[in-house]
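BUG: 3D viewer hangs when loading the predicted structure for this chain

Environment: internal workstation, default settings.
Expected: structure renders.
Actual: progress bar stalls at 90%.

Input used:
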Amino acid sequence: MDYSTKYCIVGAGPAGITSAKNLKDKNIPFEVIERESAVGGNWWFEHPNSAICHSTRLISSKTMSHFKGFPMPDDYPDFPRHDQMCAYIRSYARHFGIAEHIQLNTSVERMERTQEGLWDVTLSSGDTRRYRGVILANGHLWDCHFPEFPGVFDGEVLHSKQYKTPDVLKGKRVLVVGAGNSGCDIAVEAALYAEKTFQSTRRGYYYIPKFVFGIPVDKFGETAYRLRVPLRIRQVMNGLLLKFYWGSPTSYGLPKPDHRILESHPIVNSQLLYFVRHGDIIPKPNIKELRGGSVEFVDGSVENIDLIIYATGFNISFPFIDRKHMNWNGFGPTLYLHAFHPEYDNLFVVGLLQPDSGIFHLMDRQAELIASFIDAQNRRPQKAAEFHRIKAGSPPDIRGGVKHVDSNRHFLEINHAVYERQVQKLIRQLA
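Structure tokens produced before the viewer hung:
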């Protein structure tokens, strides 16, 4: 079979199926290659490569997270469970007729670029297929990052990806390392099940409740984005609101943040500070040394620990393609809008984002822009050529003027409103 007119989409999670939907809308031939036996990606809890746990829910609200034109069911709660999200993803694939284009139980082993600029894709079945182009939608929350500390720990060690159910916490002295959303969710669960819970963080953070005045916090904050309220005013307003709601983080025994609000990825959790104030989560600074069955922290304190859970994020990995093809720079690939290779016009990535909001609608927009560019290559070559010049040039500001804390954690950080406006502008230019 000739695949040279088709695009290969890697992965049938949310990024892959919205890529497929948008290519289908433009009558662009494609097929989806999926390693697992069903659609769902990271939100399919039952498959062994999923990075979520049994209690995982959306951090962003359903009204701010759905695919364009396909809202979540009315009977879903404001912050749906993982099984509801998996069902939503699968219903999207069925609704738009994507399922018949997916090859399940097949993984991509290798991609090589041909002299003609096409892509030879080798599959786990042993087949090598030559495609017109590729869209990488395999996700970036799977290659666990473990920090390195002096010493040796003799107890049990898990990454947040490996944590699934709270039975592993019972009767243990647990240390959760990291204050991202996963780390805070696990620390809250440990407060309910573990003998004692400690949480180690390198710096102070701002903790955002899920609801403000009875409204999901992201829905409440969206008004300021739509009105294009300047960054500094939003920082002042949000800071005052959090101070009114929680008080100061230092009153909970937490370190004072070393940055302004909005300058780190938002931590959305309504329970963590409650358990800290009740003594069920004990804040600790960064680890100084591992000491067999105990851990020493940089403040000199030492605690006996049975289980360490590292909620320390993930490495960006595309093991099936050489980094020379990804314009790799340090921690990850340098791509226009985190989606477009500056030189290749047939290599794209969808979902390589860390927004201050839900991500589904942004992946949808990315995929729509990619499909518009491919369609322009077919039917409006002058517009495609102009877009090629744009994506090969200087990148736009997609963080809304925010200078984030200097860490790998923020490599993919974007302002969702600024990003979406930029993408919509480019879609109009390609039309």
